[in-house]
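From the shared-data thread, chain only:
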Amino acid sequence: MTNPEVISPAFEPFLEDSGPQDKREAIVIYRPAQPPQLPLRGSLRELRRRVNVIRAHAAANAASGNSIFQRYLEDSKKRAPKVGELAHDLVGDGTLPVSTFEVTRKTLPALAAQPNVLAVLPNQRIDLVWPKRVEYDALAKDELTNKLTWGLRKLDVPEVWKASKGKDINVAVLDTGVYGEHTILHDRVKEFVVIDPLGRRIETKDGKTFDYDQHGTHVCGTIAGGSTADGVAVGVAPEANLLVASINFGNAFLSNVVAGIVWAIEKGADIISMSIGLRFYEPKIDELFKSLLEQYGIVPVVAIGNENHGSTCCPGNACHALSVGAIEKRTANKVDVAPFSSGASLIFPGQQVPMVSKPDVVAPGAQIYSCIPPAKIPDGIFEYTYMDGTSMATPHVAGALALLMAAKPATPVADIIQAVRDTAEHPAADPAFRPDNRWGYGLIQPAKALKALP
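Structure, as tokens:
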């Protein structure tokens, strides 16, 4: 019996121009095997143990995916005998309970009817949340004076550095790549891979890194960069490890991002930073983020988008994503949510969570100074730039989480996330007004969150 609730509503526009025999690729999220008991975050030895546990867990997930596919094939032959062979591919080796399946209009119900299938969603195109503005300006006077970017100063990051600088925490960045040879990223990029349009992993010669744009390098600098030649600190967690997957967002699909997520899990990621957006709203993607949190204790940190108030970017609006909006400086002492920062309340009739307000939190996201690959423009060669966007706010949150995880390695991820929300600074003093769809729970306060954790 078909279970229409597992089929994404995004299939309607995805299949609207397809014929009865035309095949389209779907992403299937199925019920995972028993969640693994992972060792604590921290040392290299513990990381190796975590990776070994993950590999063992993947085999059980893979077997489940293959079983679903065999039953789906049998049912499809009965429903649509003229369709012919249908393809199936595990995303990774089963690390996540996710596979790609070919479907047609007639076989889609057969797939939805399979036991243990949680969600079936179209493998639609995905884009990067590009910056709203890029400026090649010199460092601001106050940043030179304080030896900090304004974002680090606003978040009181030096106070947290007394306890932690993010050592041994792995932050995966799914982006345009990274120029790992930049001086402030020295020895921070521990893993690098290219995910091609077919979802294959391509290792570069001698582990050489590259960025086909500037975006990924700028994000990595905000997460874990060191100090400029002027002694100005740029990165929130300068001792965190960066695991970078370069995805060509000019020709990328959701399956490419899932492949990057699987790679990040297998490399021992604690946090995954993403600035991505789907073409159609996809409520079923939340099952993926739920698996990340519940199976592996990995926090998906996602930009909410730059489409202004009243809209949100998917998957930043997924319930289990920690979505991030951007604040900007208005005066020397006042900040507010940037006009471009997205935010909305989504209502889901009949669901366990009837309404979701996004973003979850906000962080500095305008006039953010960070590193880029050397860029030659008429004014000279630049290795740093200012950028505006929620994708500049997102790495501030990813870096702050790395600081907290390193300082409290035995604390469950759910408790860390809750502390970040509870201690966030919101214009409304009354907790009853949180979260809203501009500030979310408020501006993150990592130092206060650290004190709130046992």
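The CA atoms of residues 365 and 392 lie 5 Å apart.
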